[in-house]
């Protein structure tokens, strides 16, 4: 991390000496919340909740980000890897179904150390890696044997969209290579027959953006043609226009029920069966946690 190339930004920041990378972070782990979370896919949250740790900073920093404050590093506190181990074990003690690492890319080396130590101290529940997928396959390989469930986004097909909203025109190519590495590590889904909770596997999430149903269909077709029923696909309609997009007309509205329905019908038509949809209107700021340093 003295010449950081952890992610495809390869910004070469000296994060060990206090330099700040594109992610907005030094080498000190910063997190904004650690708690049981009940709003993930049912096979992740179950009834007991997913033990989420929200890390501050992000290497994508999408303009519409639902976790805007922590993505920009404006919320959170510094914790040591040793304290992160304690958080993992406390979440397990509180009944978490899994440990859910949210936006962890830029702290991957420290997380690897914390996971190894926590497993040596009795951490036994599945580990979920929850990412925007702008990842380096080389970096992801360090997680092999440590992560049980990958929960990546596949946000955009169009390089114009990814350039405009995430300053990453190469997003689709990069994310597809990262998702391929994730699948290589965990392979087909394994569910607990008694609880229905996922123990191993991958769920690829796609969040519909307003007016972008055609882009969404291209993503779903790619995923189904590439992976078939070997993964789950989560088709999400919870996009919520927050104040930072007030001046971006294309983003300053929710996804209409008609847009969402068109994409769902397309998914059914091409044969997607292993998946999740969101019922009713999920676009609501109440789904966004308070990043109040709870559980840290």
UniProtKB/TrEMBL annotation:
- Claim: Iron is one of the keywords in the record: yes
Q: How is the cofactor bound?
A: Binds 1 [4Fe-4S] cluster. The cluster is coordinated with 3 cysteines and an exchangeable S-adenosyl-L-methionine.
Q: Which GO terms describe its molecular function?
A: 4 iron, 4 sulfur cluster binding; metal ion binding; oxidoreductase activity
Q: Where is the Radical SAM core domain?
A: 45-273
Per UniProt, which keywords does this protein have? 4Fe-4S, Iron, Iron-sulfur, Metal-binding, Oxidoreductase, S-adenosyl-L-methionine
Under InterPro entries, the record lists: Aldolase_TIM (IPR013785), MJ0674-like (IPR040085), Pyrv-formate_lyase-activ_prd (IPR016431), Radical_activat_CS (IPR001989), rSAM (IPR007197), rSAM_sf (IPR058240)
**Cofactor(s) this protein cannot do without:** [4Fe-4S] cluster
Tell me the superkingdom of the source. Answer: Bacteria
Which PANTHER family does the record associate with it?
FORMATE LYASE ACTIVATING ENZYME, PUTATIVE (AFU_ORTHOLOGUE AFUA_2G15630)-RELATED
- Return the similarity comment: Belongs to the organic radical-activating enzymes family.
Q: Return the protein name.
A: Radical SAM protein
């Amino acid at each position: 991390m003295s010449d950081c190339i952890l992610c495809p930004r390869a910004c070469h920041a000296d994060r060990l000496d206090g330099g700040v990378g594109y992610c907005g972070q030094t080498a000190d782990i910063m997190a904004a919340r650690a708690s049981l979370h009940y709003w993930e896919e049912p096979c992740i949250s179950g009834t007991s909740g997913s033990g989420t740790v929200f890390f501050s900073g992000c290497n994508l920093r999408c303009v519409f980000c639902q976790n805007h404050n922590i993505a920009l590093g404006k919320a959170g506190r510094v914790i040591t890897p040793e304290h992160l181990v304690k958080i993992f074990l406390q979440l397990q003690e509180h009944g978490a179904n899994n440990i859910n690492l949210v936006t962890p890319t830029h702290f991957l080396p420290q997380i690897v150390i914390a996971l190894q130590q926590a497993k040596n101290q009795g951490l036994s529940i599945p580990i979920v890696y929850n990412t925007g997928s702008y990842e380096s396959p080389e970096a992801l390989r360090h997680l092999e044997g440590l992560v049980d469930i990958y929960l990546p986004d596949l946000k955009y097909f169009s390089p114009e969209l990814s350039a405009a909203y995430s300053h990453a025109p190469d997003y689709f190519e990069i994310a597809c290579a990262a998702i391929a590495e994730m699948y290589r590590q965990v392979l087909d889904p394994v569910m607990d027959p008694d609880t229905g909770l996922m123990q191993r596997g991958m769920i690829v999430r796609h969040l519909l953006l307003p007016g972008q149903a055609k882009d969404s269909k291209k993503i779903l077709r790619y995923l189904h043609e590439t992976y078939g029923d070997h993964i789950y696909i989560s088709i999400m309609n919870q996009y919520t226009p927050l104040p930072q997009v007030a001046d971006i007309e294309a983003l300053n509205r929710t996804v209409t029920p008609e847009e969402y329905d068109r994409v769902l019908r397309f998914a059914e038509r091409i044969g997607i069966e292993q998946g999740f949809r969101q019922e009713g209107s999920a676009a609501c700021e109440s789904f966004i946690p308070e990043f109040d340093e709870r559980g840290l």
